[in-house]
Specification:
single chain; about 400 residues; alpha+beta; Rossmann fold; Dna Ligase, domain 1; D-amino Acid Aminotransferase, Chain A, domain 1; five-stranded antiparallel beta sheet; four-stranded parallel beta sheet; 12 helices; about 30% helix; about 25% strand; binds adenosine-5'-diphosphate; binds magnesium ion
């Protein structure tokens, strides 16, 4: 029985841990949270901060693993490549992952390789440096932590006077204390999930994204049917493939966010060398394509044959994050009828009695997910929103 190490054992990783177990592998998990839900499905686990590369490596060596992966979190990506490189396992190179973990270096690499180029982008690691550049900047810009995720610390800035404060906030949200200031791209947002095998890029899904209203830029949901014409879908596939090659990603899953302007220009916004979060990898891709996405990720890391053939073609899947009305939870009503409804694939509720529900500003404020199917994108998305609102109504607050 081969042993696979999974870096991160939170809710979004628990699906891949379960899949590895179903496939008969021994699961070895690490997470900084001693109560991580994924530990329940692990054969062996240890509480280690997943950004602590040395400690994770030590444990990997001790357990004599055959493969190492992460899923749905950017924080595990560098650690996985570190372990893979040190132990001679399949993975992306550490150097490649270092670039991908820094949004400024990604911008730079894509510009240098003529893949994608926004009019302006700057990296700041000292707040005082802003005074030197702020007059040269053409507004609006977006400010974000270079190593951020889940839309934390992101703000659109329209006026010069607001720049410094936004950079301070973004810096606070950054582990590396680096901030990216870049041109604000006006457009519709899409997510693209890809898989790299033998250096070939396979596009698994192009998804519509529903985002919060500005000035907050957080994900609210995805829909598996892009609604785009085949010409622009081909352009997306071409651009995504070029992006992945330019960055040097050689194996496994890739999660990309992009924006399409009204002139049909495509801009890459965000890239992760890992499976998409917010149930993209665990639910949307497998339910809408029939591809055993998580199984493939596991097998790829172990050097076993994979199968990316699509078997489902006409099922539209939409998710909605449970961005709920703020308050303190007094009681949670019965949700059984929702869970058992024909078109509901999953309802994941993360709140309990006496929990505080915060105003939804980033992923961490989400209270769970709803996953539904529909005859077309509009039906599926409306349905997901409707059920989300019903879940919200059934939660009684003090
Ligand atoms: N240059 C940009 N122009 C317009 N919107 C952007 C830009 N960069 C990011 N955004 C918005 O902010 C969101 C979060 O940014 P992203 O780089 O994906 O950060 P994270 O890693 O936290 O997901 C994006 O999904 C998008 O809606
Ligand atoms: Mg993103």
């Amino acid at each position: 029985m081969k042993k696979i190490m999974i870096v991160g054992a939170g809710l979004l990783q628990s699906y891949i841990i379960k899949r590895a177990k179903e496939l008969g592998y021994t699961t070895i998990c690490v997470d900084g949270d001693p109560n991580a839900v994924g530990f329940k499905y692990a054969d062996y686990y240890k509480t280690i901060d997943i950004v602590d590369e040395e400690e994770c490596l030590k444990y990997a060596k001790k357990m004599n693993i055959d493969g190492v992966i992460t899923a749905a979190t950017d924080y595990g990506v560098l650690t996985v490549s570190y372990i893979a490189e040190k132990l001679g396992l399949i993975g992306n190179s550490y150097k490649v992952c270092e670039i991908i973990k820094n949004k400024y270096l990604v911008r730079k690499t894509l510009a240098e390789n003529n893949v994608d180029s926004v009019p302006e982008f700057y990296e700041i690691d000292n707040i005082e440096d802003i005074d030197k550049i702020k007059k040269d900047i053409k507004y609006p810009v977006i400010v974000k932590p270079c190593d951020g995720s889940g839309s934390r610390g992101i703000k659109r800035i329209d006026y010069i006077d607001d720049l410094k404060f936004a950079c301070k906030k973004a810096m606070e949200a950054s582990l590396s204390k680096k901030v990216l200031i870049e041109h604000f791209i006006e457009g519709e947002e899409y997510g693209v999930e890809s898989f790299v095998h033998n250096s070939d890029v396979h596009i698994l899904s192009i998804m519509q994204k529903t985002m919060t209203k500005p000035p907050v830029y957080a994900e609210l949901g995805h829909c598996s049917f892009s609604g785009l014409d085949s010409k622009i879908e081909s352009e997306i596939k071409y651009k995504v493939s070029k992006t992945i090659r330019a960055l040097g990603i050689a194996t496994g899953s890739v999660n990309i966010d992009l924006l399409i302007t009204k002139d049909r220009d495509i801009y890459i916004v965000d890239i992760g060398a890992r499976m998409g979060g917010n149930l993209i990898g665990s639910h949307i891709v497998p339910l809408s394509t029939g591809i055993d996405y998580m199984g493939n990720i596991i097998k790829e890391s172990l050097g076993e044959p994979i199968d990316l053939n699509r078997t489902i073609f006409d099922r539209v899947i939409a998710t909605r994050l449970l961005a709920l009305t703020p308050g303190i939870v007094k009681e949670i009503g019965d949700m059984k009828d929702i869970q058992s409804s024909d078109y509901v694939y999953d309802l994941v509720l993360k709140v309990n009695k006496n929990n505080i529900i915060n105003e939804y500003r980033s992923n961490i404020d989400g209270c769970g997910y709803i996953v539904v199917s529909g005859e077309d994108a509009k039906v599926a998305k409306d349905r997901a929103l409707e059920i989300k609102s019903e879940v919200d109504r059934r939660i009684i607050r003090y």
